[in-house]
Specification:
By secondary structure, the protein is of the alpha+beta class. The protein is built from twelve helices and 36 strands.
């Protein structure tokens, strides 16, 4: 197991949806059909590459999505459920192929309590080895939490113990002493406060069940991988004097017998997700050439790096694409490294020879590789979220690719899918080609006019692409188009483009969005410029608020989890990334004046667009004070507005019912404020 998927990522991502076709009335998906949709998450091949363990993610009960682990024989395609546990996840095969380790939720306990379990691939012998206690004080790019010893007799795993601040911060009164007193697990949703637990490495003996703690101290260790010689476990840890303020993960190795630790790297750029080569001579990992990083967004793209096992000869893997790279994994023979790359809104799988040479795009279909696993003989299993469905299981073997699952065949049967088309334009300052993706309703006919919803991604370092976008397809069922926009700062367009917002955030990005809107409207005459709405999450919510203070072309707006007042945001967020994005603390120089001028709240008196504000009630990133400030300001200005807070949600929405409510509520808001079709009004579309 290497490339893990997030259930929220898949939910927020994608569904198919139909509309009216010529000569026939196709069924249309409703927002409530989300509960019927399933998807494949993490995949893991057995060592002999004859079987694959994989997660299926379900959304058919109240609350958040959950997963269960299945096992498939690749030759016969026969499948079986690995465990009777109501929830199971993160399958990891033992090297000898006799066991699969996985994590199962424990009912009746808090949301951070799980069990490390093992079972034979046929489901027999299932038992718990150890309790696993998680934390909402997570590190960045954590990597794997479970790794087997090469003799298949032991399992190392990551669990937590209370830290020095835990008791005081959870007492009555609550006493905070650390910089990151807010949680760094932004999607957790159960508390905005850090539980202050420390991640450590434990080892469980498979036969006896004995568990011992391998690492201790006021540190966090994660991203574990057991060396092929069995003597060491490599891991990541931030040993800065103040790790909350300066995010500098470095690589260490701990002896499996005596617990002795030695440092492998000492750099300011951070390393992530290490993995030993099959011969234990090298380690592959992610890093970049930048200075100190912070918890959240970063302008510098991580690339794949390799070094000797003793930490020497640290270097970037040559000739890789100039784009953000993720989750490296060795080929079984140690001659190549597989990794995913952000490419113009897609996430493709590449393979690069370690000795040098040109990288090969192994999976480059439109969409995103969610998870992958490389096995003996070059067999590749992967979960792929494409343009036609949510994540499904595929295998590539002997030059042939087979789709092994069709989880949503019944739900999608007989439904038309709105196509997604790329669109680009020259930026306002003539520096960049800016790209977006337009979801085109299938109900277009000669002379028909259709509303347009502009959906802005967060980050700023992120991207939208052609893969299924659930909400956009629901809008398509209404006969509405959706435009997603990859403004400067987005990933997948090269390092220069990703870093174009350094020390100048929230300036040209909204103009990039408006230029794409202008190009879409003027090239597609079926778009009704009198019925346009705008929305976005996180940074996209911020841009939504900013844009409606600059133009009246949108008839309704829906910011979700936005930043509103950049000064209060700077000191309340659990992210603390702005010192990296601007190269200084906000109290230095005139930066507080600078970011106040670029705050939507500063310009709220210019807003007239009806605005629906959405937020998780326990958002530690863009705290609810951000939407509360804007809500009251809009009320004072006299702008129609509503504020919706979702319980048990953090930064963005994860519960299936909340996502459905968001879709329905958004449609209702737009319908309320869109003028009737063919209204005798004129909307000036900038620029």
């Amino acid at each position: 197991m290497r490339h893990r998927c997030s259930p929220f990522l898949v939910i927020a991502g994608a569904l198919a949806l139909g509309s009216t076709s010529a000569g026939a009335q196709a069924m249309r998906l409703r927002s409530s059909d989300l509960v019927r949709m399933r998807s494949v998450g993490t995949v893991a091949l057995s060592s002999d590459a004859t079987r694959v363990a994989y997660e299926i993610i379900y959304r058919d009960r109240p609350g958040r999505p959950y997963s269960r682990v299945w096992v498939m024989d690749l030759a016969s395609k026969r499948t079986r459920l690995l465990s009777d546990a109501e929830e199971s996840a993160e399958p990891v095969w033992s090297p000898n192929g006799e066991w699969i380790a996985f994590v199962a939720e424990v009912k009746g306990t808090d949301h951070h309590h799980a069990e490390l379990m093992i079972a034979h691939p046929n489901g027999s012998g299932s038992r718990s080895l150890a309790s696993v206690i998680g934390t909402n004080s997570r590190s960045k790019h954590e990597g794997d939490d479970v790794t087997w010893s090469p003799d298949s007799k032991k399992i190392a795993f990551v669990s937590t113990t209370p830290g020095p601040y835990t008791a005081a911060a959870s007492g009555d009164p609550m006493v905070f002493k650390r910089y990151n007193y807010h949680t760094t697990d932004f999607s957790e949703g159960f508390s905005i406060f850090n539980d202050n637990r420390n991640e450590h490495i434990f080892i469980a003996d498979v036969d006896s069940g004995h568990v011992r703690q391998l690492t201790k101290g006021n540190f966090a260790e994660h991203g574990v991988d057991w060396s092929p010689n069995g003597e060491e476990i490599v891991f990541m840890s931030d040993r800065e004097p103040d790790p909350d303020e300066f995010w500098d993960e470095n690589m260490f190795a701990v002896g499996t017998r005596d617990g002795s630790i030695h440092r492998l790297t000492a750099s300011e750029s951070g390393e992530y997700e290490p993995q030993w080569s099959p011969g234990a001579r090298s380690i592959v990992f992610l890093s970049n050439r930048g200075g100190l990083n912070t918890m959240d967004s970063q302008n510098l793209d991580n690339h794949v790096w390799v070094m000797n096992a003793d930490g020497t000869n640290r270097h970037e893997l040559g000739n890789t694409p100039d784009n953000r790279q993720r989750t490296p994994e060795w080929s079984p023979d140690g001659q190549a490294v597989y990794y995913t790359v952000d490419v113009r809104g897609n996430e493709w799988l590449y393979r690069s020879p370690v000795a040098g040479g040109q990288p090969e795009a192994v999976v480059k279909d439109l969409g995103r590789v969610v998870s992958f696993s490389v096995g003996k003989g070059g067999v590749l299993a992967y979960s792929f979220w494409g343009t036609q469905d949510l994540g499904e299981l595929y295998v590539m073997q002997n030059g042939t690719t087979r789709q092994l699952t069709k989880l949503n065949a019944e739900v999608l049967s007989g439904r038309e899918i709105a196509k997604v088309e790329p669109i680009d334009c020259l930026s306002a300052d003539y520096k960049y080609e800016v790209e977006g993706y337009l979801t085109v309703p299938t109900s277009i006919s000669p002379g028909s006019k259709h509303p347009l919803i502009v959906d802005i991604h967060g980050g700023p370092n992120g991207a939208n692409g052609p893969a299924f976008d659930f909400k956009a397809q629901v809008y398509a069922a209404q006969g509405w188009a959706t435009l997603t926009t990859n403004y400067r700062g987005s990933t997948g367009y090269g390092q220069e483009f990703a870093a174009a917002v350094f020390a100048d955030q929230d300036h040209y990005e909204p103009m990039d969005v408006l230029y794409l809107v202008s190009a879409s409207v003027r090239r597609n005459l079926w778009i009704d410029r009198n019925r346009m709405g705008i929305e976005g999450v996180s940074n996209g919510g911020f841009f939504t608020e900013w844009i409606i203070s600059q133009t009246r072309e949108f008839k309704a707006a829906i910011p979700t989890a936005p930043m509103t007042d950049l000064i209060s945001y700077t000191y309340l967020t659990g992210i603390h990334y702005q010192q990296q994005e601007y190269g200084a603390y906000m109290h230095q120089g005139n930066l507080l004046d600078f970011i106040w001028e670029r705050s939507p709240l500063r310009h709220v008196s210019s807003v007239a667009t009806p605005t629906l504000l959405l937020s998780g009630a326990n958002d530690p990133a863009a705290t609810i004070s951000q939407v509360e400030e804007y809500y009251i300001a809009l009320k004072q200005v006299g702008v129609p507005t509503e504020l919706v807070l979702y319980p048990r949600e953090g930064h963005g929405l994860a519960e299936t019912g909340h996502i459905i409510d968001d879709i329905n509520r958004s449609i209702g808001w737009y319908k309320k404020y869109f003028p009737p079709p063919n209204s005798d009004i004129h909307t000036n579309v900038q620029p």
